[in-house]
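Issue 218. Parser rejects a valid record. Input:
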Amino acid sequence: MAVTRWALSAAGQQRLSGWQAWRLLWSASPLVSAGVIGWVIATAVLPPLIVAALGFVVGAIPDAVAHGMGSAAGRHLIVTLVIAALIYAASLVADPVGGALGTAARQRVTSRLQARLLRAVSAPAGIVHLEDEETLNRLARAEGSLTGFFPGDAPVTWAGLLATRVSGVIGCVVIAGYVWWLGLLLLVMWVVVRRVMLASVIRQAIDLRGQTTTMRRAWYFTGVGSKARDAKEIRVFGLARFFAGTYREEFVAAIRAGHTGLRSLHQRAAICFTVVLAGYSLALFAITDAARVHEIGLRSLAILLPMLSVSMSAGNVSFDDITLTWALAGLPDVEQLEADLAGPGPAAPGQATSGPPAPARPAPGRTILDQAPPREAPPGGRAPDEEPPQPGIRFEAVAFRYPETSKDVLAGIDLELRAGTSTALVGVNGAGKSTLVSLLARLRDPTGGQILADGADIRALDPGRWQRTIALMPQSPVRYPVTAYDNVAFGALEHRDDADGVERAAAQAGFAAVVADLPNGWDTVLARELPGGVELSGGQWQRLALARALFATTHGARVLVLDEPTAALDVRMEARFYARFHDITAGLTTLVISHRFATVRRAQQICVLDGGLITERGGHDELLALGGTYAKMYRVQAARFGS
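Output the parser choked on:
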């Protein structure tokens, strides 16, 4: 429906988006905008002025020849030549000035648009919208990354086309000053031709706009073959030729969708060419016939004939129109993304949760959100005289089903994370452990049941503030291409100046030894592709991620989530982690997800997630004695390691 509405008002949409692009440039830089206005005026006026000035030069030549250059006629010729030269020199300057203004405008508008897009996609507390096809399509179109026509180019391109058309209209007006009906005829002809041709160009853009998903898929294949991250498998399995061929197939499939519109464009172009050829043949006949019968003189003839080429700018369709159409096509997507993603909740546009509505926001009081970070305590610990926060976090009949699926991942979870204690969650792959973590962090909302923090549904809490209370160590942590220090400090960026806290967190996580071996210590950039940068091993990145999470706990985060915290650690570091587990998690509400039973057995409460439900819960010894799923999984793993 959105594409249909866009198609029905395509010409009006382009004009509207042109003004939107101009307002965007003005808000980004009034000074550059003023420069562009001056350039537009000069670009519109100079071509007809040059033609008129040269016409006056040609008209002055006969009298100068007849009376000599020392006569008044000769001096008049010299003056007109100087004026014509100055106007022509100004036209030569206009192009590089326009290029410089275009570069300045592009930088400012692009930075403004990118900032708006980043704010839009970062606004929701959740991540559901980043998995939504329509949202990703809009983002790709708004960035212009699929076509190479960027919205940042739109303001100056639009202004340049406006100047060109105004110049053509001036040319038609000048012609009408000599032969009124001819100037009017040319203007009407170009208005009709431009409307017909532009409709085909916009139709082409609409057809390809509908192929955004296919284009994104094509660009994925070209990207996966050129990234160092994927290079090993691409080469070992010999996939380079396959990916190149698949990219070509997807790209051709996307372009093929516009072939019908392209044929229509060619047909209309042929018809319009015939009309324009007839119109200018008539114009040449009328002007030369008027000169033959002496209705116009040499000067008028010298002005009218070149002015015909100027008048073509009133309606011709150039590559700049195609560029502008594609560049403007992304602007509505920017505003649509901002409108759709403005809400703070994690739900994607058009996606509603089926669970009960969130209760009213609780009255102010001391909750898990208000707990101060521990004082004079190691990372993860609490002050001896501080009582643990109560009562903690409860999952009550929590269910979740992904959109467009028929099966619940979680089918009614009842789970209590007691404040200040550690809970381990085990289960087979696909049991829903990571989904449960995403619900806890409000990256998604339950489709049934509720999650309570200190008795309040977390959907009634400020999502950003709630997420700041959670320190997450994911199984695959983000590898930020910044310094080692900043990689840890990102756990609580507003406290980035707390160097002692960063170092304590690193020591607690076992990352301090890694820093000691880095060429520039804490100032080493952790990205091999950057100057002076290095790359860490998987286990080192995991220790860094733990340090980042622990630094967050020293500045307000009270819930520590460890997702496979020892998956990439070597045996020695894993043993050290086990030995320090209670120190690391002391005083925190901790949720540990792991397949390593040496890790989970140290938790105060162990829960088994199976079939979307918590089927077993208790301590390690208690669950072994029960002889259920946990006991079987533990014995299988113990047999593998001979313990």
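Fixed in the parser; the record now loads. The beta strands are 392-400, 410-418, 422-426, 448-453, 456-457, 470-473, 559-563, 589-593, 605-610, 613-618.
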